[in-house]
Amino acid sequence: MAKFKFRLATLLRMREAARDRRRAELGEAYRVDDLLRANLEHLGKELDWLRGQCRKVAGPGTINVDRLVDSQRYELVLRSQQDQLATQRTAVGEEIERRRETLLAADREVHVLEKLRDKQADRHRHQENRLEIKQLDEIARQRATRGAYQ
Q1: CA of 4: how far to CAs of 15, 32, 92, 126, in Å?
Q2: Are 138 and 30 spatial neighbours (Cβ–Cβ below 8 Å)?
Q3: Which of 2, 22, 75, 143 is in Cβ range 3.0-4.6 Å of 103 for a Cys bridge?
Q4: Does the pLDDT at position 64 exceed 70?
Q5: Each residue of 73-106: b (16+ CB within 10 Å) or e?
Q6: What predicted TM-score, i.e. pTM, was given to this entire model?
Q7: ∠ CA 133-134-140 to the nearest 5 degrees?
Q8: Between helices 65-149 and 9-57, what is the axis angle to 10°?
């Protein structure tokens, strides 16, 4: 019985490797998004802390105007960084979507070749079974004709 050999096995391996690269690229984009999200959360906590400090400074009693002005300037810097990170995160989100679509396309290409391989393997098994049945029939016929002459 001849062993099945998929003629496009090399192409299938190449497409699988490309799909795996796309998967890794998507994972990297997710890691960048997670890092940006963590930075945004950190900035949010920093702003909350700063606002609390401003409330303390602006509370009853003597007011340290320089400290209050410095706190407001620092808040503007933090808000600017927050806006920058939000813009970067939006861009990364678009990149994630693009990479997800690329991965889906690569996955479809692999799936098409796998279906073709499976169909060809089934056809090969069917042909091998038919050949084996023919051979068994021939052996049975030869035995029957030998038995008739003996």
Answers
A1: 20, 44, 45, 11
A2: no
A3: 22
A4: yes
A5: eebeebeebbeebeebbeebeebbeebeebbeeb
A6: 0.75
A7: 85
A8: 160
Q: SS3 for 48?
A: helix
What count of residues does the chain have? 150
Closest to 56 in 3D by CA, of 46, 71, 36:
71
The residue behind tokens 């900035």 is 43
State how far the Cα of 92 lies from the Cα of 90, in Å rounded to an integer. Answer: 5
CB 48 within 8 A of CB 71: no
pLDDT in tens, 115-129: 999 999 999 999 999
Q: Indicate the SS3 state at residue 7.
A: coil
> H-helix or E-strand containing 58?
none
In the chain, which residue ranges form alpha helices assigned H by DSSP?
A: 9-57, 65-149
